[in-house]
């Protein structure tokens, strides 16, 4: 039996960051992981492999649509799908091995196997029981199921199966118009699939600023994705190589059927607690089945904490990372705080979509007086030169104080540009503060400054 200050169960972004931070703070630390590689869902079958495929397929799109206009002429590239999958896997391997290196560097013990908590202060891995003063649950999440839809990860797939298809399908139906569905739908559309997205709501990307959502859908339709909104999927039928998706339109209850070679079920995720033993601990859960924690990530069981997808909040890798660092500092006796209003969201399609803070809809619900500063990327020299002029930056600021309340970007490098606003909001900056800050020319970031100027007397280049 080994004894530790902290044992973390799960090595995803929340778990491995918590482990490294605990070790940096002088705590004897171990991390439990049953996979053959570290990194959890994100690095192995989520964020990282999907971004590799998004990058590869975007390069194909550039070659097919923009190279000739730039004077880059030659035979259009063909898709070598097995080689693309090898590239994706090499990206995964590099990142997961990097986490293993960081564990060794920081003297974090990797307890290989699946963990459970037989009682407070103890973690069982295989046949061995280890003692820990503190236990952090960072077990992540798994795809949510859908009644009448049986996943086989071959024809009816989740995001996991969609990253390992044997070939590029001719027809793909995506159930769910959220981040995962739109990203992977974009990948396969660029690779030549006919992609139809079926969504229960009457709009895509639930929770997003409505103007951005509408603009985003128009851009995706222009790229060739088809959308069926307000549709309730009833069931799927699958053979060895084909599938049918049965759905009803909510507006008139009419029944319809779609044929597909592959159906991607992208209807969200749920916490993963299999084999953890939470029922024996009598641990308090929320109505949605997540672990209930207080504002210092303590569960109802003394000495046991929970972070990431296991608890309430957006299921985002960087949210889990923030909580991993914070709970480590909390255990080490330091002050820890996270402003959950300042966690950005990003969709890595082309163009990218990013947001932080309030939407116009939430501000209207609050009855708050606000102003909008908006600037189109068509007025940005760098974007026009790079065939990336679609989209805009929208900053929402308090009408009286000019304090930034939120920002929504759809356009090139939106996922990087949003962080200027995150930092600004962290320090309570006004739109004028952004407007008065020099931005290098020519860069995409100038569009952020112009949107800030639009909160005042107006932008320069529009």
Briefly, what is this?
The chain has helices at residues 13-24, 40-45, 47-65, 81-105, 159-162, 179-190, 210-222, 278-281, 317-331, 360-366, 381-385, 414-426, 431-435, 446-454, and strands spanning 3-9, 29-33, 109-112, 115-119, 122-125, 128-137, 141-143, 156-157, 171-175, 194-199, 226-229, 231-238, 243-249, 255-260, 262-265, 269-271, 304-306, 345-347, 352-357, 370-376, 392-398, 404-411. The protein has 462 residues and is of the alpha/beta class. It has 3 domains: 3-143 and 270-338, FAD/NAD(P)-binding domain (3-Layer(bba) Sandwich), CATH 3.50.50.60; 156-267, FAD/NAD(P)-binding domain (3-Layer(bba) Sandwich); 342-454, FAD/NAD-linked reductase, C-terminal dimerisation domain (Enolase-like, domain 1), CATH 3.30.390.30.
Structure description:
By secondary structure, the protein is α/β, with parallel strands linked by helices. The protein folds into three domains: 3-143 and 270-338, FAD/NAD(P)-binding domain, CATH 3.50.50.60; 156-267, 3-Layer(bba) Sandwich (FAD/NAD(P)-binding domain), CATH 3.50.50.60; 342-454, FAD/NAD-linked reductase, C-terminal dimerisation domain (Enolase-like, domain 1, 2-Layer Sandwich). It is built from 14 helices and 22 strands. It has helices at 13-24, 40-45, 47-65, 81-105, 159-162, 179-190, 210-222, 278-281, 317-331, 360-366, 381-385, 414-426, 431-435, 446-454; strands at 3-9, 29-33, 109-112, 115-119, 122-125, 128-137, 141-143, 156-157, 171-175, 194-199, 226-229, 231-238, 243-249, 255-260, 262-265, 269-271, 304-306, 345-347, 352-357, 370-376, 392-398, 404-411. The strands form five sheets. Strands 1, 2, 3, 4, 5, 6 and 17 form a seven-stranded mixed sheet that branches. A five-stranded parallel sheet has the order 8-15-9-10-11. Helix 3 packs parallel to helix 6 (179-190). The radius of gyration is 23 Å and the shape is globular. The chain starts with a strand and ends in an 8-residue tail after the last helix. 45% of the residues are buried. The mean pLDDT is 97.
């Amino acid at each position: 039996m080994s004894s530790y200050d902290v044992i973390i169960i799960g090595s995803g972004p929340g778990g491995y960051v918590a482990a490294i931070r605990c070790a940096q703070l002088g705590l004897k630390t171990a991390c439990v992981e049953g996979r053959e590689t570290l990194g959890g869902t994100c690095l192995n079958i989520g964020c990282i492999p999907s971004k590799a495929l998004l990058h590869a397929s975007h390069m194909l799109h550039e070659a097919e649509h923009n190279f000739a206009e730039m004077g880059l002429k030659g035979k259009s590239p063909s898709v070598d799908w097995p080689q693309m999958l090898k590239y994706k896997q090499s990206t995964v391997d590099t990142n997961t091995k990097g986490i293993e290196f960081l564990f060794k560097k920081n003297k974090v013990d990797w307890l290989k196997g699946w963990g459970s908590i037989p009682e407070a202060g103890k973690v069982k891995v295989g046949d061995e029981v280890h003692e820990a003063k503190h236990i952090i649950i960072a077990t992540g999440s798994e795809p949510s199921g859908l009644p009448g839809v049986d996943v086989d990860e071959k024809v009816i797939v989740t995001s996991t199966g969609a990253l390992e298809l044997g070939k590029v399908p001719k027809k793909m139906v995506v159930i769910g118009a959220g981040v995962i569905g739109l990203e992977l739908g974009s990948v396969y559309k660029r690779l030549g699939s006919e992609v139809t997205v079926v969504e229960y709501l009457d709009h895509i990307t639930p929770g997003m600023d409505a103007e951005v959502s509408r603009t985003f859908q128009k851009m995706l339709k222009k790229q060739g994705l088809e959308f069926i909104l307000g549709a309730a999927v009833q069931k799927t039928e699958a053979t060895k190589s084909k599938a049918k998706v049965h759905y009803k339109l909510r507006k008139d209850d009419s029944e319809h059927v779609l044929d597909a070679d592959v159906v991607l079920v992208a209807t969200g995720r749920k916490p993963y607690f299999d084999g953890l033993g939470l029922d024996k601990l009598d641990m308090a859960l929320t109505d949605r089945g997540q672990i209930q924690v207080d504002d210092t990530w303590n569960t109802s069981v003394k000495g046991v904490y929970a972070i990431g997808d296991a608890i309430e909040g957006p299921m985002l890798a960087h949210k889990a990372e923030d909580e991993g660092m914070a709970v480590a500092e909390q255990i080490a006796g330091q002050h820890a705080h996270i402003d959950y209003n300042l966690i950005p969201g990003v969709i890595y399609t082309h163009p990218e979509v990013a947001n932080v803070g309030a939407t116009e809809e939430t501000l209207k619900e609050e009855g708050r007086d606000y102003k909008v500063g908006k600037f189109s990327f068509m007025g940005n020299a760098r974007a026009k030169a790079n065939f990336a002029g679609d989209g805009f930056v929208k900053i929402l600021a308090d009408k009286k104080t000019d304090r930034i309340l939120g920002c929504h970007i759809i356009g090139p490098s939106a996922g990087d540009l949003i962080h200027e606003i995150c930092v600004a909001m962290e320090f309570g900056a006004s739109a004028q503060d952004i407007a008065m800050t020099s931005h290098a020319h020519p860069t995409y970031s100038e569009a952020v400054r112009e949107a800030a100027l639009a909160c005042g007397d107006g932008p320069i280049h529009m």
